[in-house]
Amino acid sequence: MPAIKKTLSRFVMPGVIALALFSSNSFADDVRTVKIATAAESKPLSWGAIGHEPQGYEPDVLKAINAKLPQYKFVMEGAADIAQETGLVTGKYDMATGGYYKAESRSKQFLIPDAPMGAGLMKIYSRSDSDIKEMKDLVGKKIVPVTAGGGVYKFVTQWQQEHPTEKLTINASSAGIPYPDRLKEVQNGKYDALILPSNLGQQTVIENQKLSIKASEPVSINQTYILINRSAKNKALNDDITKVLKELKDDGTLDKLSQKWFGEDVSQYMK
Q1: How many CB atoms lie within 10 A of CB 104?
Q2: How many angstroms separate the Cα of 150 from the Cα of each of 11, 28, 43, 80, 147?
Q3: Is there a contact between 199 and 57 (Cβ–Cβ < 8 Å)?
Q4: CA 115 → CA 202, 243, 247, distances in Å?
Q5: Do 45 and 58 form a contact (C-beta atoms < 8 A)?
Q6: Phi, psi of 165 (to 5 degrees)
Q7: What is the set of domains in the chain, with CATH numbers?
Q8: CB count in 10 Å sphere of residue 100
Q9: What is the DSSP string of the chain?
Q10: What is the pLDDT averaged over residues 75-89?
Q11: What is the pLDDT of residue 28?
């Protein structure tokens, strides 16, 4: 009998090991790798170029999503703004994040989850002793030039069209001067106000450099979304991300992450 058991174990054990390896490999095969383009130079929203681990609010949200979706393996890669949407269209990336607003053209071109991942709060930054609180208070004021064709330019242009009697002096620029330097220009009186989304780390700069600058209440709110390559295989991914984003908002995760990176709760503006 011992000899028979020994013989059986010689055949059974390798079979068990093979089955375990097969099961392990099968599970690994079921995990789909999802390549994601993240903004490379938008601290604290997202930063980290190719070869560096992306950091910031959006990468942390993506990690929280992936933790709830073990059937996917998210692989993030920092990319320039123009390369993100191009890579998404060509299929180089499955997803892209970069503070994207939902627009009709994007909805036709990409899959967009029904739940937002963040919110861009447009605010006015002025000296602490100024009387500037809202857009109409900028009439007759010196406003920091805005990037031609950018989100701020579009917002201000639309606001001006909706308020034709409130004439603002807006200059478009492509100089690309960093916003910390722009805040200093407001501080020293070169300009009266700066209009920017609040998710670029302005509050940290103001506090670290002890600037006498205040931020207005949001003058415009735009929810931000993940963009997903439009293909049949990504429909389930889109649905899964929508479900998890709603859970992360409800359980307070998005609040916690926005407090960590922006110093305020932007999730309250997400619907």
Answers
A1: 7
A2: 69, 43, 17, 15, 5
A3: yes
A4: 26, 8, 10
A5: yes
A6: -85, -10
A7: 29-119+224-269 (3.40.190.10), 121-220 (3.40.190.10)
A8: 24
A9: -HHHHHHHHHHHHHHHHHHHHHHHHHHHHHSEEEEEEEESEETTTEE--TTS--BSHHHHHHHHHHHH-TTEEEEEEEE-HHHHHHHHHHTS-SEEEEEEEP-HHHHHHEE--SS-SEEEEEEEEEETT----SGGGGTTS-B--EETTSHHHHHHHHHHHH-TTS-----EE-----HHHHHHHHHTTS-SEEEEEGGGSHHHHHHHTT--EEEPSPSEEEEEEEEEE-SGGGHHHHHHHHHHHHHHHHTTHHHHHHHHHHSS--GGG--
A10: 88
A11: 53
Q: What tokens does 157 get?
A: 């242009």
The reported pLDDT for the residue numbered 102 is 85
Q: 260 vs 69, 240, 268, CA distance in Å?
A: 23, 25, 15
At 175-208, the pLDDT tens digits run 667 888 999 999 999 999 999 988 777 887 898 8
Region 18-45: mean pLDDT is: 72
pLDDT tens digits, one per residue of 235-261: 999 999 999 999 999 999 999 999 999
The CA R_g of the chain, rounded to the nearest whole Å, is: 25
**Which residue pairs, CB below 8 angstroms and at least 24 apart, start in 65-69?**
65/241, 65/244, 65/245, 65/248, 68/244, 68/247, 68/248, 69/240, 69/241, 69/244
**Distance from the Cα of residue 236 to its chain's centroid:** 21
Total count of residues recorded for the chain: 271
